[in-house]
Write a structure and sequence with these properties.
heterodimer; A: 597 residues; alpha/beta; 38% helix; globular; B: 234 residues; binds flavin mononucleotide; binds iron/sulfur cluster; binds FE2/S2 (inorganic) cluster
């Protein structure tokens, strides 16, 4: 980047772009030219900052002042005030929930305060489409070091010291995986970057590709040297057009600069990289299914062993890692494995990106040190539960993760502690649920998703999930029977034990964990025909509380079935026979007079 | 050559052998459904499960697809395997109660109840027909389409196939179309015929030779048992 007085960093991740970031950027440029400031102020498009719900976002450096939810018409005023008169504009800054004073600096905002950026170190600060920007922040130094000073063994040794484990789900030690692939006698060898990211609601990989594509290239090139591979693929899902475009651009730039291709940096080492577009289902993210998909076959998992490292793409040794795993590599090589290992817990080193969603005040993408507690994420970064409600559970690890109760708020988040309580790290999804969430319905929802995503090959995964869904649906509909929970558990364990791939093996987690921690909710549904969260339609009735209703009639006006009657200023009543339990009256009543049990 | 331990017995096998082959080589029985010696293993039915490794880190794998690796410790009939296998059979019965092959598995492994609402389906997606057509008949007329619970066996684009030779091999090998069990109905998903030892062949086939073989009922009380045996030997 040029040495200018101010950099205006406009977030151009997918979220902000869909909120109009490109128009904002253009207007900034126009305004700056209008004021003749183009020599002093540089407008830079950057990758996603993770706080997309507040987009479009803009950061003014070097002051670090953060503006959010910008509209095109705000820009002229902002340029005039901030850039010309040197007066930051508080009305466009971020104000925390239930507070009045805006926070000017990004680093002081709760959402950003607890984060530690390693994999996402370049997010929001470089232009991802310029290789020069990446290089300006020590980019490709790791590759240079590994090509000129290090042997493959030394590279793998640093990865081993770093303690890096795969970020794609299972948390397999990366150094061990590389070692196995390196030791295979046959060639050629292939590398794959798994950016399929099929978890609904997750976008950590997309964000990395959009914010820092060169880090993926550098990581893979270093891996190629360590393993002895000459060709790599970045498998990106079709739904990520911006990521694909940036990745392709980055590859082209790296090729032009001699950082990919033949005889990289004059070291005699060759490595080619291309983008493969995935159009597949959730299960295509599973490594063996992904490999088949690149080969042009139907994306269905196959038997492992042989593992991809032994027999992968076109039957050749193939090393496959997640995007986040790859982007950690350049920094480990540049700064040393011990540097990376200084953050995190005993068994899980470094940082992890999480996608924080659900009934929480701040949602978005956050990178935090391993070992952070659920409480710090939910009540620190997330600033607590939406609408001041009570926390009930958090699901970690995507659709097939387990749901953890309030008593586990202080659990450190790492691979092993999550597994020990019946959940998993997965790719890093975190869904926060409040007191109004029915845990049986949660199990039903995710079982339904997974039953639909099962490739269908294994009888137990296909039929087992289908039957589990049937029982869960019955329970939610008030048709649960004595013994259902036991049968459900039996099925869940069978699906987990006897299915072939990770999808089937983890698909029982939502059911098993909700039975384990929220058994009382199952029992209430089955024995008392009651949904404690007041969610399952078949098990709730709406009524109006006499002592609270003031007879304003607001509910009556919104009821789609005319089920509410009552005179002005008199207590209203709901006819439960015609009520369709849509909940509109609850929304409309300002006096909390409508009771749902 | 990989050396492994199966149910406490040491065995050495050729490289490339599957666990199922190694187990059968020792004369130990493992039930299979989607496996056929002439076809590529698929691992669809999960009946052939065995436990590998030492508890608590042991895991369950399908022996028909798992390679016999050096140093592997295999248990073919642990309580865990037995329990899961029984539940798999119970699920299969609920899926296709009219399959004699599955009913026989149920009686053999002591599955006497079915806690699921029967579907009265026609296919358990074992993929035998697909592989038969592809690998033995070299026609490739049928395949799997869709996924999960919507998975079906069909021809490309559901159109009448112009490569199918109507050889019937797919039907011949199918565990669901092949022999229909006469017993089960909506109330009794698990056919109790064999278990009650009332050979149904008596009124179904009358004096004619029954082709249900093996039939558990027949083995025990069947009136034509002797005749059948003679015919098999001849
Ligand atoms: C159903 C299923 C979906 C998966 N989806 C992804 C995915 O979207 N991205 C990913 O990196 N890994 C995914 N995985 C994990 C991969 O199989 C594989 O373990 C991973 O890419 C290895 O990389 P790592 O060692 O860097 O974690 C999935 C696994 C399963 C079973
Ligand atoms: S476990 Fe499920 S998704 Fe995985 S291969 Fe078997 S059927 Fe397919
Ligand atoms: S829940 Fe819906 S249908 Fe029922 S009374 Fe309220 S508004 Fe009317
Ligand atoms: S909106 Fe509330 S207070 Fe008003 S009539 Fe309806 S129940 Fe009563
Ligand atoms: S009958 Fe047709 S579909 Fe069946 S095996 Fe023969 S060729 Fe294939
Ligand atoms: S039709 Fe028969 S052989 Fe083919 S998959 Fe279904 S059960 Fe198996
Ligand atoms: S007795 Fe005959 S009809 Fe009944 S299950 Fe056995 S083979 Fe089928
Ligand atoms: S796209 Fe701007 S914060 Fe995510
Ligand atoms: S026989 Fe092995 S899975 Fe069917």
């Amino acid at each position: 980047m040029k040495a200018q007085r101010t950099h205006i960093l406009v977030c151009t991740g997918t979220g902000c772009v869909s909120a109009g970031a490109f128009d904002i950027m253009e207007t900034f440029q126009k305004e700056i030219e209008k004021h003749g400031l183009q020599e002093e102020i540089d407008v830079v498009p950057t990758g996603c900052n993770g706080f997309c719900e507040n987009g479009p976002l803009v950061l003014f450096e070097p002051e670090g002042i953060f503006y959010q939810r910008l509209k095109v018409q705000d820009v002229p005023f902002l340029v005039e005030e901030h850039c010309l008169k040197g007066r930051p504009v508080p009305t466009l800054m971020y104000t925390p929930h239930r507070k009045k004073t805006p926070i000017p600096a990004m680093k002081d905002i709760e959402f950003f305060k607890y984060q530690k950026l390693v994999a996402l170190r370049n997010r929001g600060r470089i232009n991802p489409e310029k290789i020069e920007d990446y290089i300006a922040f020590d980019g490709y130094l790791g590759l240079a070091k590994s090509l000129t000073e290090m042997s493959p063994e030394q590279i793998i040794e640093q990865i081993r010291i770093s303690g890096l484990r795969g970020r794609g789900g299972a948390g397999f030690p990366t150094a061990r995986k590389w070692q196995v692939c390196k030791e295979q006698p046959n060639s050629p060898k292939y590398l794959i970057c798994n950016a399929d990211e099929g978890d609904p609601g997750a976008f950590m990989d997309r964000s990395v590709l959009e914010a820092d594509p060169h880090a993926v290239i550098e990581g893979m090139a270093i891996g190629a040297k360590a393993i002895g591979a000459e060709k790599g693929f970045v498998y990106v899902r079709m739904e990520y057009p911006l990521a694909v475009e940036r990745m392709k651009k980055a590859i082209k730039q790296a090729e032009d600069m001699g950082l990919l291709g033949d005889d990289i940096l004059g070291s005699g080492f060759n490595f080619k990289l291309s983008v493969a577009i995935g159009a597949g289902a959730f299960v295509c993210g599973e490594e063996s299914a992904l490999i088949r998909s690149i080969e042009g076959q139907v994306g269905r998992p196959r038997q492992r062993p042989p593992f991809p490292a032994q027999k992968g793409l076109w039957g050749k040794p193939t090393n496959i890692n997640n995007v986040e795993t790859w982007v950690n590599v350049p920094q480990i090589i540049r700064k040393g494995g011990a540097w990376f290992a200084s953050v995190g817990t005993e068994g899980s080193k470094g940082t992890k990106i999480f996608s924080l969603v659900g009934k929480i005040n701040n949602t978005g993408l956050v990178e935090v040190p391993m070992g952070i507690t659920v409480r710090e994420i939910v009540f620190g970064i997330g600033e607590g539960i939406l609408g001041g409600k009570k926390f009930k559970a958090v699901q970690t690890g995507g659709p097939s993760g387990g749901c953890l109760p309030e008593s586990m708020l202080d659990l450190p988040i790492d691979y092993d502690s999550l597994a020990s309580v019946g959940s998993m790290m997965g790719s890093g999804g975190l869904i926060v649920m409040d007191e109004d969430t029915c845990m049986v319905d949660v199990a039903r929802y995710f079982t339904n998703f997974l039953a639909g995503e099962s490739c269908g090959k294994c009888f137990t995964c296909r039929k087992g999930l289908e039957r589990m869904l049937e029982i869960l649906t019955n329970i939610c509909n008030g048709k649960g029977k004595e013994g259902d929970v036991e049968l459900l558990e039996e099925l869940a364990i069978m699906v987990k034990d006897t299915s072939m791939c990770g999808l089937g093996q983890t698909a029982a987690n939502p059911t098993l964990s909700t039975i384990r921690y929220f058994r009382d909710e199952y029992d209430a549904h089955i024995k008392e025909k009651r949904c404690p969260a007041g969610f399952c339609k078949e098990l709730i009735t709406y009524s109006i509380l006499e002592d609270k209703c003031i007879g304003c009639g607001a509910c009556k006006r919104v009821c789609p079935t005319d089920s509410i009657s009552g005179e002005k200023k008199q207590t209203h009543v709901i006819d439960t026979k015609t009520c369709i339990k849509c909940g509109a009256c609850v929304e409309a009543c300002k006096f909390d007079a409508i009771n749902v049990v | 050559m990989p050396k492994l331990t199966i149910d406490g017995l040491d065995v050495e096998v050729e490289k490339g052998t599957t666990l199922l082959e190694a187990i059968r080589f020792l004369g130990i029985e493992v039930p299979t459904l989607c496996h056929n010696d002439g076809l590529t293993p698929l691992g669809a039915c999960r009946l052939c499960i065995v436990e590998i490794g030492k508890p608590p880190r042991s895991k369950i794998v399908t022996s028909c697809t798992y390679p016999a690796e050096d140093g592997l410790i295999v248990h073919s009939n642990t309580q865990r395997v037995i329990n899961q296998r029984k539940l798999i059979i119970e699920l299969m019965i609920a899926t296709v109660p009219s399959s004699k092959t599955i009913q026989d598995l149920a009686s053999k492994f002591g599955v006497t109840k079915c806690r699921f609402v029967p579907e009265h389906g026609e296919c358990i997606h074992c993929g035998l027909c697909v592989r038969m057509c592809n690998e033995q008949m070299m026609a490739g007329a049928i395949g799997f389409a869709e996924r999960g619970k919507d998975m079906v066996i069909t021809t490309p684009f559901d159109k009448t196939s112009d490569v199918c030779r109507l050889c019937g091999a797919c039907m011949y090998i199918c565990p669901c179309c092949e022999l229909r069990c006469q017993g089960p109905n909506a109330e009794t998903t698990v056919c109790s015929g064999c278990l009650n030892l009332e050979a149904p062949c008596l009124d179904t086939y009358d004096e004619k030779m029954c082709f249900l073989d093996p039939c558990a009922a027949c083995e025990l009380t069947g009136p034509f048992r002797a005749e059948k045996k003679k015919k098999v030997q001849a």
